[in-house]
Design goal:
8 strands; alpha+beta; disordered C terminus; coiled coil; Znf_FYVE_PHD; about 15% strand; Alpha-Beta Plaits; about 50% helix; two-stranded antiparallel sheet; Znf_PHD-finger
Amino acid sequence: MVKDNAKAVCCEYCASWYHTRCEGISDEVYKFLNAGGDQIHWFCKSCNSKALDVMKLVQGLKERNEMLEAKLDEVKGQVEEIALVRGSFAEKIREISREEVHEAREKELRECNVVISNIKETDHGAAGDPDQEPVTDNDTVKQLIHNVLGASDVEVVSTTRVPKVKKQGETHNRKLVVKLGSVNQKHKVLRIAKRLRDNDDWQGVYINPDLTKQERKKDYELRSELKRRRENGETNLILSRGQIVTKTNAGASFLHRGHSPAVS
């Protein structure tokens, strides 16, 4: 039993009090323990090994906690990165959707159109006579389709020069975008456009589909590939319905696109 006035120390593990003499603690050590207060921990002989085990356990838990915190920071960073990627991916999907909607609308607007190249631009009257009505692009296109190509049943709805305003100093003829009465009428005009090759007055005039921006890009890429392959010796190739094929395999589809000078 430890009396109130005796020199004693308390084991921090088992909370028991011990005489300094019984524990072999000198007066100097005793003073040191008292002076240290809560910063110094003392364990009795029976608890000392247990305390070391506890300290090792605490240290292990501390190290594990630090590892978990580091792993948590890593996972947090990955989650943030995934969130950014997901956001970018979602925005890309929305962008693609907008492009697809725009492309579909452009195709719908052009579905009855053809583009005619190299028709001379003029605002003069017939034979230069100022008393006669000027010959319009609409008149010229009707003559071309109805009389030259013999498609009198095709309706010419409208004609538009592109670009709408001719740049100063330009000498070449702007292309004509021609809207016809139906998709079937458009296909008919494209199918018989090859007849212009045999007409001396209309040689150099070409009729092609009115393509969207994406379709023009694809068409350009196909024509570039066709040119490259021909230069490498594949001379028996043509473009037919959006594909590069050999002339023997093209058949009727080649005739469908045969009006274009860059196809064959």
